[in-house]
Amino acid sequence: MFELYKHKKHEISIGIAIIKQVIQNIGNPLDAIREAMSNSCAKEVDASYFKIIIFYDGSFGWSFILEDDGIGMDYTGEKDPAKQGRLDKFLNLAYSGVAGLKSDEFGFKGLGSKLMYLCRKLEIDTKTKK
Question: Which run of H or of E encompasses 111?
Fold first, then answer.
């Protein structure tokens, strides 16, 4: 059994320092996909598959849908990092690691979420097993 939740829209402002860091760290636009794959395929996420759908959207240009069957990301809206869910931590640009999981995988100090913020539109649909 599952519950349906209404979509939540979050306005996020990007500071100049964040954009500067992304520009310095990105070598290719496909780095965003590489980072998403790296995060989804980390063993702590427990995904058995990862799928990328690439298509051209007339309004937004080249678009990507990234899908996996991992543990999902929960959202709490808490400011205290100890009480935040995985989606809160993904949205927190200063966070490093695999979105709230202890990880021995190599990461890039939250570069994945920073790269995602450079897109024209970012939609995150996620569900947890809870």
Answer: helix 111-116
| Beta-carbon-side half-sphere exposure of residue 94 (alpha carbons within 13 Å) | 3
How many residues are there in the chain? Answer: 130
Residue 59 lies in a domain: yes
Which domain range does residue 63 map to? Answer: 16-116
Q: Which residue has the tokens 């947890």?
A: 128
Distance in Å from the first CA to the final CA of the chain = 10
At 57-81, the pLDDT tens digits run 999 888 889 899 999 988 888 888 8
Predicted model pTM: 0.62
Q: How many CB atoms lie within 10 A of CB 31?
A: 16
Q: Domain total for the chain? A: 1
